Amino acid sequence: MIERLSTGISEIDGMLKGGIPRGFTIAVVGEPGTGKTIFSLHFIAAGIKNGEKGIYVTTEESRESVIRQAEMFGFKFRDAVRRGELIIIDALMGEHGDPWSLRELTVEELISKIMDAKRTLGYGHARLVIDSMSAFWLDKPAMARKYSYVIKRRLSKWDLTMILTSQYAVTTSLGFGFGIEHVADGIIRFRKKIMGGYLRRFLIIEKMRQTDHDKRVYEIDIVNGKGIIVKGPYNATREDIMLPSSVIRKIIQAQLKKEQELSSTDIEELDDNV
Ligand SMILES: Nc1ncnc2c1ncn2[C@@H]1O[C@H](COP(=O)(O)OP(=O)(O)OP(=O)(O)O)[C@@H](O)[C@H]1O
Ligand SMILES: [Mg+2]
Q: Residue 260 to residues 4, 143, 215, 251, 265: CA-CA distances in angstroms?
């Protein structure tokens, strides 16, 4: 039996047939603001709740920002850090004298810092989040796949289950081939769409080795005090391709008006001809 780890969101655990297999490297991908960071916070919080240790590497937000965002959903990261259950490696601020910051955004520095953190947390399994990986190949996107592979390989003996986030939905569109997606054991993709003048969010499990996972698109929401909630499977309906009803009404009205004008000139022409 594969041991599975809760993501912290029971509906997503259900989609994954129990959760993320222990030891897996998961790519969490999606455009900005889709929920990758918040999903990662759930994952770490679920581990802490279960007595597992956590390592969270933040590259786009400061440690304080991560703690505050987690706090909004009731995850007490500051306490977990104090109790020695969680280490937040700040790769953004890099403050002098802070042992858990990265001086340079290099893969080597990242790996050695993660190993230090794992040693400090002690024996046993730990959950690791690197949010985001994109920062490490900003100036060399062609290295995405290699760097992802190096990280997975070098950390493979450290009893970690990893979430690596990436903003680039499809790196192939840039002509560099896939990044973390090929190297990862699983891919969870977040999407957003403006529909009816409203921002809606979706999630799909695109890949999960050794798992007969759910293949449907799910609509999700991010709710203050709770975090990610799953609204249910999303059926692609006419709504997807249809314009907002107010726009449709205007088009129909314009069409009708045109027809009326046309028919009245037709009648006038007829009158003239008679
Ligand atoms: N307390 C809150 N209550 C409700 N929604 C929130 C709250 N905090 C954040 N959000 C929503 O979550 C979004 C951010 O989600 P998240 O940080 O997970 O995105 P992301 O995919 O990591 O984006 P990026 O790639 O830019 O890091 C915000 O834009 C906002 O819509
Ligand atoms: Mg983020």
A: 66, 62, 49, 14, 9
The finding on whether 38 has its CB within 6 A of some atom of ligand 1 is yes
Domain limits, the chain: 4-237, 243-274
- In degrees, rounded to 5, the angle at the alpha carbon of residue 24 between the alpha carbons of residues 6 and 36 is 65
Give the count of alpha carbons within 13 A of 183, CB side only: 26
For the chain, the average pLDDT equals: 89
The ligand placed nearest to the CA atom of residue 168 is: 1
Q: Report pLDDT digits (tens) over 107-137.
A: 999 999 999 999 999 999 999 999 999 889 8
Residue 92 Cβ < 6 Å to ligand 1 = no
Nearest ligand 1 atom, CA 73: 1
- Per-residue pLDDT tens over the stretch 135-177: 898 888 788 889 999 999 999 999 999 999 998 644 444 444 4
CATH number of 4-237: 3.40.50.300
Beta carbon of 221 within 6 Å of any ligand 1 atom: no
Which pLDDT belongs to residue 178? Answer: 60
Any atom of ligand 1 within 6 Å of the Cβ of 13: no
Ligand 2 is an ion; residues with CB less than 5 A from it: 36-37
Decide if pLDDT at 243 tops 90.
no
Q: Where are the beta strands (DSSP E) in 34-90?
A: 53-58, 86-90
Peptide bond preceding 65: is omega within 30 degrees of 0, i.e. cis? no
What the block records as the tokens of 233 is 């499977």
